[in-house]
Design brief:
With about 140 residues, this protein is of the alpha+beta class. The chain has one domain. Helices cover about 25% and strands about 30% of the residues. The strands form 3 sheets. Strands 7-2-1-8-9 form a 5-stranded mixed sheet, sandwiched between helices. Strands 3-4 form a two-stranded antiparallel sheet. A two-stranded antiparallel ribbon has the order 5-6. The longest helix is centred in the N-terminal third of the chain and has 11 residues.
Length: about 140
């Protein structure tokens, strides 16, 4: 059984972007993974830019995005030591939000966000990255 969750970023003015995550939303895994691996605004925005996620992994190129065939591709890149690895790269001519906004939701306040995510898809946890404090918060939805 899946532990469904949402990941969102809270920016200036209270506006937030969010994506749905189907598996492994329990705090012992998700909160730890987010705090250790997605701890900057840039990293969080990149994670959210691909839309809804089957599961969040420690490395973004290991994440399973529902829309992967349309919106990102694997590309061979090299690190400082010349070692090759594959990374996910956004398709530059198809910006995510403009082409398919159904997977990235924008809310003006937390109450609307909680109501929308808890009803219908049975979200159990909401993870919020505060762009100002650079900290993650976990809210359990009951």
């Amino acid at each position: 059984m899946a532990t469904r969750s949402n990941i969102r970023i809270k920016e200036a003015g209270g506006i937030s972007k969010s994506v749905y995550v189907h598996y492994d939303g329990y705090p012992e895994y998700m909160l730890k993974t987010l705090e250790e691996n997605y701890n900057t605004v840039r990293k969080v925005k990149k994670l959210l830019s691909f839309g809804d996620i089957s599961s969040v992994e420690p490395c973004i190129d290991m994440c399973n995005f529902y829309s992967s065939s349309k919106w990102h591709k694997s590309q061979k890149v090299y690190n400082k030591n010349g070692e090759a690895f594959y990374a996910l790269v956004e398709t530059p001519h198809e910006p995510r939000e403009k082409e398919y906004s159904g997977c990235i939701n924008i809310y003006d306040n937390i109450e609307d966000y909680k109501k929308d995510t808890a009803i219908g898809i049975f979200i159990e946890y909401i993870y919020t990255f505060d762009a100002d404090t650079k900290k993650w918060e976990c809210i359990e939805i009951q």
